[in-house]
Amino acid sequence: MSKKDGFVQIRGAREHNLKDVHLEIPRNALVVFTGISGSGKSSLAFGTLYAEAQRRYLESVSPYARRLFHQMPVPEVDSIEGLPPAIALQQQRGAPTTRSSVGSVTTLSNSLRMLYSRAGNYPEGQEILYAESFSPNTPEGACPTCHGLGRVYEVTEQSMVPDDRLTIRERAIAAWPPAWHGQNLRDILTTLGYDIDIPWRKLPKKDRNWILFTEEQPVVPVYAGLSPKEVQQALKRKDTPSYQGTFTSARKYVLDTFANTESASMKKRVSQYMVGKECPLCMGKRLRPESLAISFAGYDIAELSRLPLKQLATLLHPYARESAPGWDQMAATHPEKAIVTQRIAADLSDRLSVLLSLGLGYLTLERSTPTLSPGELQRLRLATQVHSNLFGVVYVLDEPSAGLHPADTQALLEALDRLKQAGNSMFVVEHALGVIRHADWIVDVGPEAGEHGGRVLYSGPPPGLSHVTDSHTRRYLFTDNGLAGRSIRSPRGWLQVEGVTRNNLANVDAAFPLGVLTSVSGVSGSGKSSLVSQVLVELVSRELGQELVAEADQGESIEHDMPATLGGRITAGMASIGRLVTVDQKPIGRTPRSNLATYTGLFDHVRKLFASTQAARTRHYDAGRFSFNVAKGRCGNCEGEGFVMVELLFLPSVYAPCPVCQGTRFNAETLEIRYKNKNIADVLSMTVDAAHDFFVDEPAIQRSLGVLREVGLGYLRLGQPATELSGGEAQRIKLATELQRTTRGNTLYILDEPTTGLHPSDVDKLIFQLDKLVQSGNTVIVVEHDMRMLAASDWVIDIGPGAGDEGGRIVASGTPAEIVHDKASRTAPFLKEFMP
Ligand code: ADP
Ligand code: ADP
Ligand code: ZN
Ligand code: ZN
């Protein structure tokens, strides 16, 4: 046997920015990939190792899948040897997750249904139900009234006609289809003799009801383009109509479309005209009455699914240990039932204990996954894998510590160790020092981002990294951690909120200092996001009369969980806040059409510059000519995307470069125009650094580029599509866009876990930028679990002490130096290590 046994050997990896990387990494070990944001860690771990494992797997399954894989991206690598099959537990930032629940993701609900089916208490005379009868997603289980949704949706006159001062011609019936289809319905009403030119509210009630709610669908002659009067004359003369039109009431249109359309955007459009209320039959429990009649430990299955997992575990424990009240009697009378109960309860308890140890005990089985943070979702999947009994596979994870308070990191490491001990390889992209220190092997990528990164600086056991001078990671891992020499700034006032009630917060009062940097901390699930990202954002924007930009949820909006309760008001401090900005890690766009240059506004200046060249003026090309969103200048084949979408059958669609413009996005005539010998596509392919040199004579462009370099994005290309940017990059682009505005000093910035995905050296850069916002007189509030950020703050608000029901209170509030002495704060001991 060669000494290479037990290693994965990679040769010539060149995906994205990787520079022909040769590397050997051990199997059956915890391997942590480190390096600053954009250095190439994900390109190596996911883009190369995982992608190749996936490709080989698909190739091995079937000829059919092999056909598909020809269209799948093949990683740029010469060879990989010794690579086991891989499972990725990757966080999908910003991407909409398909609707599922904690119970379904973890498969705990399946076991619970089995428990109710086989070991539940049935009312006298009721037959045993199959497990499916306890699922709202099956015909056997779903409540017949709400079809398992828990809510019923109806339309009302008010929901479909929001403004009754409008006439039908002025589109009073907002719920009707847009464009020609809506006009068609209007023309039908004219034929039927309804007045479409008086305000809706002046129409008789009987007519309004018929138009909105009738089930009838009369077919009538339509005379397009004629006035109401002319239509009546034409009818009398029995003229040949333009066509025969079928009438559909607004209600019928909305409900049919909602039930039948396959288009998410149509569904979303009509859903806004519907109003929902709790289903009167199942009271929101989503199941048939027969299923809800079965109980276990005094609860029906819906009630059990609403208990925090921690409480569920406590409830099941005595059954697993055969010590529940009345157990002996049951074991004597129904021995088979006792056996089933014990087995299922033991299995559930065992699996729940992993979830609890990963700090997720505050979740309920019923909680829908789109309301979870990416970190919570990843840990759920991780916990599920711990019990999968797989071995010999590679798990590839990105930042499993995301959203996790340091107090919970130990449990995470134990879960990773368990999977390793079962005979698996753990490849983890991570920034948290606690996780890096625990690694068996470190692969440090860098030294910088993008073009200046992509090399492996070190590959080996952690201590060896201490000799690698090029490594940024080395600095944070082996030398002191504090941010020395910071002085605390004092607030110039307080933003006070009172009576906040939301999720686990009950009647909480809080005071946020103005004009300084505040971190809100606490264990995962303690209520940080509920207080800051939900309530505070809503209250402040309401006070400012600022439209809350709706979360970009994809369709299904109607089924999204509404907060159960909402209470709270601002009692002081609004006078000095003029604007609210939330900076998150959501993508700056979902198609290749958005990019850094368009998002920051920098591209507007560049286009004007091209339009002002002699050649452009001669040809009468204006700035619009140089936009890939305007037809005249862009490539007609890809409509300026540079990419064409290739639809794959049951895999996510992929983008391929446009064969006509070769990805340049513009048509040949547009590309003939040059500024300083570069065409517009050349400019879009420049990095921010290169463009900074190129546009030396253009102060406005220089300024935007300068800020982008300051936030550490000098390596990005101007035209790099939004779809290729990481969450951390998107966040920094948003931040840079803010920083280039002329600051008015009265803005409140709110950031939820801005350090996610950031290397400690990136965190230092971020702190520097946040400081700049504060120095211009603004207020910054971040939700954080990164102790570096906390230590650098002027004020800390610690929420907790625990998660869910055990949290939701403000445990401590003060300067970082005050917080470390607070005995009640779980954050204090960790913060202490980062204080000078
Ligand atoms: P890290 O994981 O270390 O943050 P990445 O591997 O995501 O870094 O990125 C490394 C480099 O590759 C960056 O310059 C990034 O902009 C670029 N990159 C990432 N994804 C893509 C992509 N899909 N296409 C082209 N370039 C990409
Ligand atoms: P943190 O931000 O500190 O991790 P959260 O504010 O997200 O905590 O959560 C606090 C509590 O509120 C938890 O018990 C969590 O399960 C619950 N919660 C948060 N968001 C929702 C939601 N959309 N629906 C139901 N419960 C929620
Ligand atoms: Zn119902
Ligand atoms: Zn094209």
From TrEMBL:
Keywords: ATP-binding, Cytoplasm, DNA damage, DNA excision, DNA repair, DNA-binding, Excision nuclease, Metal-binding, Nucleotide-binding, Repeat, Zinc, Zinc-finger. InterPro entries: ABC_transporter-like_ATP-bd (IPR003439), ABC_transporter-like_CS (IPR017871), P-loop_NTPase (IPR027417), UvrA_DNA-bd (IPR041552). The keyword Transferase does not apply. This is UvrABC system protein A. PANTHER family: UVRA PROTEIN, UVRABC SYSTEM PROTEIN A. The keyword DNA repair applies. It is found in: Cytoplasm. It comes from Noviherbaspirillum pedocola.
